[in-house]
Amino acid sequence: MKSTVLGYPRIGAQRELKKSIENFWKEKISEEELFKISKDVRTRNWIIQKEADIDMISSNDFSHYDHILDMCITLGCIPERFKNLKGLQQYFAMARGQQKEGLDVTAMEMTKWFDSNYHYIVPEFVKHQEFSLNTKKIVTEWKEALALGIKTKPVIVGPITFLLLGKEKEKGFNRLELLDKILPVYEKLLKEIDSFGVEYLQIDEPVLSLDLSKQEQLAIVKTYQHFSKINVRLKIILANYFDCYGDNLDVAINLPVDVFHLDLVRCPLQLDDILSHPSFSTEKILSLGVVDGRNIWINDFERSLKYIEKVTEKLDNQHIWIASSCSFLHCPYDLDLENTNKKIGLDVKQWLAFSKQKLREISTLKVLATTPGNEDANSIFNENKKANQNRRKSELIHNTLVKERIDKLTNSDSQRISQFSDRQLLQKETLDLPLFPTTTIGSFPQTKKIRQTRAKLKKGEVTQEVYDEFIRNETEVTIRFQEEVGLDVLVHGEFERNDMVEYFGEQLEGFAFTQYGWVQSYGTRCVKPPIIYGDVSREKEMTVKWSSYAQSLTKKPVKGMLTGPVTILQWSFVRDDQPRSVTCNQIACAIRDEVKDLENAGLKVIQIDEPAIREGLPLRKEDWKNYLNWAVKAFRISSSGVKDDTQIHTHMCYSEFNDIIESIAEMDADVITIETSRSEMELLDAFVDFKYPNEIGPGVYDIHSPRVPTQKEIENLLDKACDLLPYENIWVNPDCGLKTRDWPETKSALENLVKSARSMREKM
Ligand code: GLN
Ligand code: ZN
């Protein structure tokens, strides 16, 4: 029996790699210095895994930016516009674009890695795409580890996943047609690393977790049959993760590979299907992904051992590996770095395991399965059992009042009093807004001064009073600015918020925060998701102070600003001891109470942001309906407690709406603001085809760029929107919050935005 890990986080325990890469970009350190730091990160990763008794350790799981981008380099899949560049300059230009020394190349696209919050670089394909092999990275890393006495298993992305995750950049072909061209390059790769003495190669094909067409399944068969005929000694590990093999199981189980990896965290039920499958073979090694690579809870050893026992009835120990469910890329580094404080107490800490702790879990499970008499392992087992038992009963987690409230929810709790058309009339009366009302999405520039002052408050260098006074000032300035520029529905600016989830998590019961729990989101960007460990409840108001202060400064309506339940859930580590839907409902109730408090405090407009609704969609379509049902319901619970003339807004960015428009409509927000400006209003099509009845603010100003849109540009976009939608339903607003912008461009852009709305009014 062997212990194995599919991949290890690579940003460095203290985000050293992130910082070094950013310094390299700023030309503060040389390429040599950067390479030295990245080698250190790799070395430490390997040694940590070795010290934790992991038998099969990965290499080539490291990356300076993204592993799909690395694969583009390995396969020579480099778009024409980068061909004149070399080395790291080319690499980072592909990732981020480059605009210097007369050069102006746009970056490759970036998109979400399955249902995670990690983003990968999207490979670009042309019709006459050529591939060529570059094994430098793989070979270098293999040799580095070998020098430490570690014979690694290199990890690569398989051809089908690589092709399917990419995009055709020309019409007239399908990227799967490139398979015949890409296979010889993979073949060369296999032969070359085989000649170095690589014993096992892990080939990741997580597309096996998706709904695949017949044609795609056949491509998988063809690929692995091809590989099995290559004359090499190395053995292939086929790794699928994030969901079941599902409909792809019949195909996958017959593939001529040596090791077959299962994600038993996301899909425990598939174990029985596999063990009883007519094609199940005792010759193949099963890699049992029992330790969760996507979450931060300690393993349940009892449960994992049950899975392992089941397999030992059918397979001898040589054919069983104990594994992480997927790469630890999605887990923070090391729980030991966290000193217990008010953010994360000792009680909560005993239920957590980050990457380093999970390594021990894997090797302990192996010992428990192979040498049941081992004393050390047994005492760890007992500790684990105790921790899991007290987690099940802990008062810290279980709040009867919250549970009762969730149980007692009825349909009327997710139902506004009247239907939209009636509410719309009442709101028109109460708010008395002009046609094409103007507003913003919530945040105004978070200047350096603001971030510094917040940092000072954290360090205790300024008092709460001084900080509050400072924020009050910023808020007032922003209210005055919005009045002057002539916006119709104002916002307070969100200056008091660090982050749209953290701000709420910090005030809700059931959340814990880490100091070093960083996870790579893309490139050098890392996030530190809150940990939802217990029943969620709201002890007291969270935003009323700032919103009502802002409202007290002006006669114009100020919009209360909240983050929605699905987004809070989606951007946190979520407890695994109850369905996500239950946790989501708990958050929804907390937000509902906040909405009511805002209403009572005189706020007539309240926005509940749900930018993450779409990214929560399950990988397989058959699971979509269930998810959308509870997600929409949670939003409605949060938003339905108000009077008819209180106007509920929601905001969603980076979304395709086509396949979920029905659910968006079911959310029944009075106004939805969306991101459309970069797509030239294309994203509106879904709303148009559906005849979306409620009011809608298609973003007319791309806040992702410092560029100031002209009045004419904005008006053109609004004209387009009017061609598509009833003009009485159209709002005028930017794409998203302005927190990443600077004041000068924000001012000019909003001036133009207001002017364009006025001009539209005159035209009607
Ligand atoms: N209200 C938030 C803001 O303006 C919305 C952010 C988002 O959509 N990501 O910053
Ligand atoms: Zn947004």
From TrEMBL:
Q: What class of enzyme is it?
A: transferase
For Zn(2+), which residues are the binding ones? H651, C653, E675, C736
Give the protein's cofactors. Zn(2+)
Q: Tell me which EC number(s) this protein carries.
A: 2.1.1.14
Pathway(s) annotated for this protein in UniProt? Amino-acid biosynthesis; L-methionine biosynthesis via de novo pathway; L-methionine from L-homocysteine (MetE route): step 1/1
Cobalamin-independent methionine synthase MetE C-terminal/archaeal domain span: 436-758
Q: Which protein is depicted?
A: 5-methyltetrahydropteroyltriglutamate--homocysteine methyltransferase
- Species the sequence originates in: Aquimarina addita
**What is the phylogenetic placement of the source species in the record?**
Bacteria, Pseudomonadati, Bacteroidota, Flavobacteriia, Flavobacteriales
